[in-house]
Amino acid sequence: DVKVTQSSRYLVKRTGEKVFLECVQDMDHENMFWYRQDPGLGLRLIYFSYDVKMKEKGDIPEGYSVSREKKERFSLILESASTNQTSMYLCASSPVIAAASYEQYFGPGTRLTVT
Amino acid sequence: GEDVEQSLFLSVREGDSSVINCTYTDSSSTYLYWYKQEPGAGLQLLTYIFSNMDMKQDQRLTVLLNKKDKHLSLRIADTQTGDSAIYFCAGFSRSNDYKLSFGAGTTVTVRA
After folding, report:
1. Which residues does chain B have within 8 Å of residue A92's beta carbon, measured at their own beta carbons?
2. Which residues in chain B are contacts of A107 at CB distance < 8 A?
3. B interface residues, A as partner, C-beta within 8 Å
4. Strand partners, B75
5. Would you say residue A82 has pLDDT above 60?
6. A109 by DSSP, 3-state: which?
7. For chain A, what is the largest distance between any 2 Cα atoms, rounded to a whole number of angstroms?
8. To which H or E segment does residue A97 belong?
9. Sorting pLDDT into bands at 50, 70 and 90, what band is B52?
């Protein structure tokens, strides 16, 4: 079974703090993704990575950065947390594009509250 | 990128069939997916359909694809309380740099 784990289920941070969200997958997938989920808006892609040290901006990268130093780990960084970044953050991974079905496997999510 | 739209809420009686609808804009979508999210959990792939298919059936789930109208539906037969969840429609296409585009999610509530 593919397993995608996220470092925290719930996180409360103060405005202006630097926040790290960690994601680890155990299936040697090349692709990893960070989304945020908000009611009525569905999932919006923040950043994704096709390989170690590679990153691409998604649809809403402002206020976020990412790091992928090892294949299995993809970190999302909020440089200076703001209240409008209060959300559910979901990490996902998938095998290479040429693989059948291009399915993405999701972690359980981190609910971040910025006060 | 692609726009994917779906209604936000559906209420259904236990034992009835549920039908969740989705429309998408990108005609080059090669795969279309249905994901399920139970309370407090991440997304789990329920089923997917390749763009050259019209229908796919998997136990209680039936996916219908109308490429002409860019319409996708998910039918759940004999809906159970465990089917209460948020269901996301998503599309995958080369024109969107191989990324998934998700709808807003339909919250399905199963009532006794």
Report:
1. 43
2. 42
3. 1, 4, 8, 31, 33, 35, 40-45, 48, 88, 92, 97-100, 102-105
4. B19, B62
5. yes
6. coil
7. 43
8. none
9. confident
Residue A63 to residue A87: CA distance in whole angstroms: 13
Distance (Å, whole) CA B24 – CA B105: 13
What lies within 8 Å, CB to CB, of A86 at 6+ separation is A112, A113, A114
pLDDT tens column, B53-102: 899 999 999 999 999 999 999 999 999 999 999 999 998 877 777 678 89
SS3 A81: coil
Burial class of residue A80 in the structure, from the number of CB atoms within 10 Å of its CB (0-12 exposed, 13-18 middle, 19+ buried): exposed
Alpha-carbon span B63 to B73, nearest angstrom: 6
Strands (E) in chain B, as ranges, are: 4-6, 9-13, 18-24, 29-37, 43-50, 55-58, 61-66, 71-76, 85-93, 100-102, 106-111
Cα A96 vs. chain centroid, distance in angstroms? 18
- pLDDT tens figures, A52-68: 999 999 999 999 999 99
Q: Is A13 left (phi over 0), alpha (psi -120 to 50) or beta?
A: beta
The owner of tokens 């990268």 is: A61
Residue at A3: amino acid letter: K
Tokens linked to B79: 């809906």
Distances (CA, A) of B97 to A58, A62, B1, B15, B102: 10, 19, 9, 41, 14
Q: Which residues of chain A does B4 touch, with a Cβ-Cβ cutoff of 8 Å? A: 42
